[in-house]
Give the backbone structure.
Amino acid sequence: VGQSTGIPYREQRLLVGTAEPPDDASVASFVHGAAAEGAAAEDAAVDEALVLTMVRRPPEQARWLEAVRADGRVLREAPPEIRGDREVALVAAKSGAGAFRYASEALRGDRALVLAAVREGATGVLRHASDELRADREVALAAVQADPEAFLVVSRELRGDRELALRAVRSNWIAYIHLPSEELRADREIVEAAVSANGMALRNIPGRLRGDRALVLAA
């Protein structure tokens, strides 16, 4: 495409219909998956003919996308309009290293962007998201499901949410230490989840439960 159009690779954005295949996916795999879904939905044969659309990115955006994909921390050196670019911010966030802190304030409070990042595994964005989003239950549940350690950065109010707490403790007993209330720390199901995950949790549970034979055996 680059040779025939003269458009540099980093400025090319390929769309299949209205969707953009992930960077690590081949067009063929993306198309075949979409075709299979379409056939299942419509219970009909899918035409193999395919129309691709190539959109040219602005050179400045393309340059920064390439830069943050290599190291998200360079976002701190970007001009305001780039730090406020949703696509650049998402790519930077997925590179890790706390890059999302350099996104604009508006993007750090963008629910759709933060939720998308979390669902794609970039749970670190929650640490630098707005207070409102760290108190958003759907965002918190998605983050904890992907990475139990995200429980440590959700709002104190959400750390008191029993479902969220139980899910986090089952995956990582350390979350038990950060439960904000005696009620949750004495919740037998949560305690059992903690000691089952790691026997060391016995040291942190309420004294009256340490002699519970079933809990000791679970550890």
